[in-house]
Amino acid sequence: MNAEERAIYGDIGRKGLWENNTALVQLLGLCPLLAVSTSFVNAVSLSLATVLVMAMSSGAVAALRTLIPHEIRIPVFVLIIAALVTCLDLAFNAWLHDLYLVLGIFIPLIVTNCIVLARVEAFAAKNSPLAAAWDGAAMGVGLLWVLALLGSARELIGAGTLFSGIDMIVPGAHAIQVFGDEYRGLLIAILPPGAFIFLGLLIAARNAWVARVQARAAAPHTPVEAASA
Amino acid sequence: MYNSPYLRQNTSVRRVMTTVLVAMLPAIAVQSWLFGAALLVQIALASATALACEALMLALRGRPVAPALTDMSALVTAWLIAVCLPPLLPWWTTVLGTAFALIIGKHLYGGLGQNPFNPAMLAYALLIVSFPALMSQWPGLNVGDFATQMDWVFGGARALDGVTGATPMDALRTGLMTGSDTAAVMRSTAFGHVAGAGWEWVALAWGAGGLLLLALRIITWHVPVAFLAVMSLVSGIASLIDAAHYAGPALHLLAGGTMMGAFFIATDPVSGATTPRGKLIFAAGIALIAWLIRAFGAYPDGIAFAVLLMNICVPLIDMKTQPPVFGHKNGGAP
Predict the structure, then answer these.
(1) ipTM, 2 decimals?
(2) Which end of chain A, C or N, has fewer beta carbons within 10 A?
(3) Residues of chain B neighbouring A193 (CB-CB closer than 8 A)
(4) Residue B18 has what pLDDT?
């Protein structure tokens, strides 16, 4: 991989993780984002599934992009995505059955998650398979870290625990009671309004951060910086 | 050379807000007389929290702190929150609700005049959704002396079911669910002459304070009249159809938050409708939704949720009810 390619792949990764973050900037796929972020384990496991689907479907569509007729590309994309999600759904059912029962309808609903189709249509249909798979994975991981943050914040404030339900993935592991047994939990954090409030706060934090960075970049260099440069 | 208007009133935010605070005094006095002085402590708690949050948010937003702190608007929000909550609530619950109202409900939307939702009702909704058990512990008449009440508020001691009485709305809901009819429930001990021992006097005091606001032209007649008329109408019709399951207008007007909602909550000039016809629609919608929640919903009283739901509709209501510009027909459209 030469320097130019490295720059391109770095750019794709940066866009997926931060600049065009699906949850904080594009605000796509809010339905699963809000519905499964009630706990860390639910949030991370569903977004890991989404990462897998996005990487595989983007790669598959990019490999087949010259064969797919332009006029019927959307139904073909959806078929490819649906096939991959079905495999994943069956895998969850077979190997992580408890988690499968908790996540329920949201695994099949990855098919309808607009992030997946958006990346396939906007990126994978025009780029090489490797770049497309990398883009899908980066966009998915961008969703993953936001969901992980949202899930832990809601679980921590709503129930006073972290990693509840971890025994569904790692047998024998236990949830952490962060605030002790006395904590009764702020129920609203677990309920849907809590998801909107926390996501709003995360978006506000990101916007504030970006505005600060831009203001610093626009400001004239101070003598100290000029000397070090 | 001066521009019109030549006659102008010396109104300011501070004067309006101070008048609202004064108009709340009768109800606060009656409620603390009948149910104990814990209410006054809750008001102090909420006020201190509101002023602290207001100062903090103004400082964070880089706005001048002193003028906004002395305009009394934070105090009005704090007092309205304190009177909505059961007075024996643990202190941190009041602080949490008030902080949520001021920080998220008011300042994150841009501060005074910008909030789409009534901050006091947001605080109430947050607390009743999060702590339904705590929020149903209303004191009965003369429950505990002041020291005992303070022990419940600050000491972490929990009031027992025996000393906390149900409000009329709670009693009616539980009674109907356990199979008795409205007449039997209303003969029980929780009820006074019309709408719950003591609570009818608190409601009348809210009405008196509201009439003061009307007389001083702080509020217009549209909201309270539409609110109380629709509440009487729907509860009257329902009780005519099936008196055993639907309480009559007297109860619905004098119990729960009807009077306070009609005069002090739905008249909020920021989160409520602003056009005359819009105010009628806004208040009628609140009364209808509140009655529906009382009659069929899972919560005993629905004023807070009804206000929040109608708050969402305000931009549409205001847009559709603009009065015609002078000299034009059809709202000034060409």
Answers:
(1) 0.77
(2) C
(3) 129
(4) 92
From chain A, pick out residues whose CB is under 8 angstroms from the CB of B126: 188
Q: Are A188 and B130 a contacting pair at CB < 8 A? A: yes
Q: What's the rounded Cα separation, in Å, for the pair B101 and B80? A: 11
Total beta-carbon pairs less than 8 A apart between chain A and chain B? 13
- What is the residue-wise DSSP string for B97-142? HHHHIIIIIIGGGTSTTT-SS-HHHHHHHHHHHH-HHHHT-EE-TT
In a domain, B76, yes or no: yes
Domain boundaries, chain A: 7-177+184-214
Residues of B in contact with A184 (CB under 8 A): 131
Q: What is the mean pLDDT of residues A68-86?
A: 93
**B109 class by beta-carbon count within 10 Å (0-12 exposed, 13-18 middle, 19+ buried):** middle
Q: Identify the pLDDT of residue A229.
A: 40
B280-292: average pLDDT: 95
pLDDT score recorded for residue B179: 63
Task: Please give, rounded to a whole number of angstroms, the shortest distance from the CA of A186 to a CA of chain B.
Answer: 5
Quote the distance between the C-alpha of residue B189 and its chain's center.
26
Residue B8 in domain: no
In chain B, how many domains are there? 2
Which residue range(s) make up the domain with B108? Answer: 13-165
Interface of A with B (CB under 8 A): 184, 186-188, 191, 193, 197, 204
Q: Does A187 contact B126 at a Cβ distance shorter than 8 Å? A: no
Q: Binning pLDDT at 50, 70 and 90, where does residue A226 land?
A: very low
